[in-house]
Amino acid sequence: MRLVRQNDENRTKRTAVGGVRGALAGLAAAALAAGCAGTDSAVKGAHGPQALHAPPARALDSYASKLRVAQAARVAAAKRWGLAKTPLAAPPAPAKKPVIEARKGFEVEDQDELPPVFTTIPTKDKVVFLTIDDGAEKDPAFLKMMSDLKIPYTAFLSDYLANENYGYFRKMQARGITLNNHTLHHPYLPGLSYDQQKHEICGMQDVMRKQFGKRPSLFRPPYGNYNEDTLRAAKSCGIRYAPIWNEEVFVDHWEYREWDRSLHPGDIVLTHFRGREDWKGTMPDMVRRFLKKVTDEGYAVARLEDYL
């Protein structure tokens, strides 16, 4: 059995406003054509701004207003949390989900029947996905920051750390964050038997169901290490995907899997629930470093589950 081991803010505003202007121009042209066809040419409209009476026009005006309000809130939140630039908004979730396959070289025997291990989502969208592992640090400021900034992320929890305060992660879940499986005790899975691996994975599925209301379909093997038994056990526990990562961000630096040391569309980024006991800073400090690079390079942060 083979062991697989893993040890322009302005552009966004112009796009949004340009889209709304284009749609408004189209509606105005249609309304003018209809008016010319069905009214007396001697009848003239009153001067000055007119109320929007047509339902589509009112709806579009309301949508434009919501866009302006949402962007203003993002700009204010970015300033409040010390960001030099406002994070870019992610595109809508794809209507057609990409096909997820195991990354080449990361397959095991009978891979077609097992959850795929992958590091990048196949997409042309200029997005990356933030994933956070284990659950050691439970920083209220992190929850507030990510909620204010509307930044999505995906959590992978290990029970031996999460059980200190399930309530913290329930608050996270209430904010729309998906909680996923990272085993009960974070062991080196390839060193365990099939039954032991199944206990670690299925046992955590039971905890997730009891504490958070559902068994997740995503699982991340601790340290990114797995073998065929790992994926067979995960499948038996209801797991469909086993995402790992292409980059890892810390409070003071980044690490890369690829030789070019760059972000790519669809990359999964790893970090951990950590604070000053382990890092030279806090989780909000890590988020600032993460968002600086992502935003500077023209990427938005998207929700991983929207692509699966």
What's the layout of helices and strands?
Blueprint (H helix, E strand, L loop, with lengths): L8 H30 L16 H26 L36 E2 L8 E8 L5 H10 L4 E4 L1 H4 L3 H9 L3 E4 L12 H19 L15 H9 L5 E2 L3 E3 L4 E3 L11 E5 L10 H14 L3 E2 L7
Parallel strand pairs: 1-5, 2-3, 2-8, 2-9, 3-4, 6-8
Antiparallel strand pairs: 6-7
Helix pairs in contact: 1-2, 6-7
Please explain how this structure is put together.
39% of the residues lie in helices and 11% in strands. It has eight helices and nine strands. With 308 residues, the protein is α/β, with parallel strands linked by helices. Mean pLDDT is 87; it is low at 8-50. The chain starts with 8 loop residues before the first helix and ends in a 7-residue tail after the last strand. The longest helix has 30 residues, at 9-38. The strands form two sheets. Strands 2, 3, 4, 6, 7, 8 and 9 form a seven-stranded mixed β-sheet that branches. Strands 1-5 form a two-stranded parallel ribbon. Helix 6 (194-212) packs parallel to helix 7 (228-236).
**Structure class:** alpha/beta
- Alpha carbon gap, first and last residue: 29 Å
The helix/strand series, from N terminus to C terminus, equals HHEEHEHHEHHEEEEHE
The biggest beta sheet reads: 7 strands, mixed
Fraction in helix: 25-40%
Mean pLDDT: 87
Number of helices: 8
Total beta-strand segments: 9
Low-confidence stretches at least 5 residues in length (pLDDT < 50)? 8-50
Rg, please? Answer: 24 Å
Amount of beta strand: 5-15%
Shape: globular
Distinctive features:
308 residues; two-stranded parallel ribbon; 9 strands; 11% strand; globular
